[in-house]
Design a protein that fits this description.
nine-stranded mixed sheet; about 25% strand; globular; alpha/beta; about 500 residues; Rossmann fold
Length: about 500
């Protein structure tokens, strides 16, 4: 059995070397070629000084090259740190700094935006681009011809198991995003478990439409490689590109988040798109019942799996298709190999119908937050029997049949478009706008996004000025949908912004 992430590809290269592993537009690659390129990339990184445990930050669009680099970094024994390509330079700079990356691989155009940020990245030693190298960076050879010049018997890293494979950055209720420490075993167990309950097989073509920096997005790659299927990479601009891609590539499996499914459900789909689609999955938030019904009408032969997960433990629950019609508002049952508990603040188990915090116990629990033992301590603990567990911060309840139902977050994290967003990160950016004295961000219910970001502020700056500032400095999924100028911000007795009162005020009809 595979012990490290790159062994997934090595195994398939031996079992079915000519099978298609990756497709991106008109470009395809079989498993044998992909494995040669991974080995070559590992050797390139090693020759440039990469040592086991070094962090390699990757700020790239979704492409075959980006997948090669991820697996090549793992094969070199390094820790890959994927950066969402929609982030702006300040957010990318934070990931590079916080992870202590020694290597950054990106494109020349992206690198040119990072000049100010790189000056504050003391651990960064090597800049690599996959296209034309600008001043101060080297080009990393990734083409097939170069890959074939390396010895196929290259000894790749023996790191694996519980050793660190990646840092995936996710936001909480406070501060900037944190790097979740995920091991090779976490990734491999997740791929195996999900492939089993989705019944994935070698003839599948899985559309990877979500960012690879998102654990749910990267799972489309690992699940495909687990069974020797094809991962079809798609960077889409408009939702209507997805039904077209399904039709063009004969896609059999598609993963999405609520905001994407809400938009896709409103589109007319080509009749032939649903013919190949065996299943669709949702995670990253609750899917409205109306959207579920619309998808069932659009895709009557397609199986729908509703799932719940968190970066700190990958996937926790799933609702099998036969239960979706009867319990469309449930997040499901524990996935195989995982125990899910609903607990009170004192740690005791909640009764049926009683809301409590979801605690995930089992092999998918990550190792904590990178460089943040204090922040890790309340989230990553041991269950009573000594197994690793994560306290999710999400409130759920369990019915008499064992099905779980999401009740909401127990903190101020905003869940929008499948992302967890820290209100403090938005507030910090807003406060950098001239004329803003105080700014507070809250999440309000939204039928498409899950939650919309509402930003209230005191100051002389005009709302349109603050809106332009946020659009310049924040990635699109963090743009406030509503910006409200207040004469006076509601405060708690101890003088802090009162988010609860503000939320009620903003939700009230105008």
């Amino acid at each position: 059995m595979p012990e490290a992430l790159h062994h997934l590809v090595e195994r398939q290269a031996a079992l079915r070397p000519s099978a298609e592993a990756l497709r991106c537009g008109s470009e395809t690659m079989d498993y044998a070629t992909l494995w040669r390129r991974i080995q070559a990339t590992a050797q390139s990184l090693t020759s440039l000084g990469a040592t086991p445990g070094d962090r390699v930050a990757l700020w790239l669009p979704k492409s075959i090259d980006s997948v090669v680099l991820i697996f090549g970094a793992a094969a070199a024994g390094a820790v890959f740190v994927p950066i969402n390509p929609v982030l702006k330079a300040p957010q990318a700079g934070h990931v590079i700094r916080d992870s202590g990356a020694r290597f950054l691989v990106t494109q020349a155009a992206r690198l040119s935006t990072l000049e100010r940020e790189l000056a504050q990245c003391p651990t960064l030693e090597t800049l690599l681009t996959v296209d034309e190298p600008p001043h101060g960076a080297a080009a990393l050879p990734l083409d097939t011809t170069v890959a074939q010049t390396f010895d196929d018997a290259l000894q790749v890293s023996r790191r694996g198991g519980d050793e660190l494979a990646t840092l995936l950055y996710t936001s909480g209720s406070t501060g900037r995003p944190k790097g979740v420490m995920i091991s090779h075993a976490n990734l491999l167990d997740g791929a195996r478990i999900v492939a089993e309950y989705l019944d994935n097989r070698p003839d599948d073509r899985l559309l990877a439409a979500l960012p690879l920096s998102f654990d749910y997005g990267f799972s489309q790659i690992t699940t495909a490689f687990q069974v020797g299927a094809t991962a079809v990479l798609l960077d889409y601009l408009l939702p209507q590109q997805i039904p077209s891609a399904i039709q063009t590539h004969g896609i059999t499996g598609l993963a999405g988040v609520p905001s994407l499914w809400n938009r896709l459900a409103a589109l007319p789909w080509p009749a032939s798109a649903g013919q190949s689609l065996r299943y669709i999955t949702n995670s990253g938030g609750t899917l409205p019942v109306a959207t579920i019904e619309r998808l069932r009408t659009l895709l009557p032969q397609t199986r729908l799996f509703l799932m719940y997960g968190l970066t700190e433990a990958f996937r926790s629950t799933y609702l099998p298709p036969p239960l979706v019609q009867r319990h469309p508002d449930a997040i499901g049952l524990p996935i195989p190999g995982v125990d899910i508990h609903v607990v009170r603040p004192n740690g005791s188990e909640c009764a049926v119908g009683e809301a409590g915090e979801l605690v995930h116990v089992g092999p998918l629990v990550a190792q904590g937050y990178w460089g943040d033992p204090e922040g890790s301590r309340p989230v990553f603990r041991r269950w009573h029997d000594g197994r690793p567990a994560v306290w999710s911060g999400d409130r759920v309840c369990r019915d008499a049949e064992g099905l779980l139902y999401f009740q909401g977050r127990s903190d101020d994290t905003i869940k929008t478009s499948g992302y967890r967003v820290s209100p403090e990160e938005i507030e910090e950016t807003a406060m950098q706008c001239e004329g803003v004295r105080i700014a507070v961000a809250v999440g309000l219910p939204d039928p498409v996004l899950g939650q919309q970001i509402a930003l209230a502020y005191e100051g002389e700056s005009r709302p349109e000025t603050l809106e332009a500032h946020c659009k310049t400095c924040l990635p699109i999924y963090m743009h406030p949908t509503r910006i409200t100028q207040l004469d006076e911000m509601p405060l708690t007795p101890n003088g802090k912004p009162d988010r609860a009162r503000l939320r009620v005020r903003l939700e009230a009809p105008a």
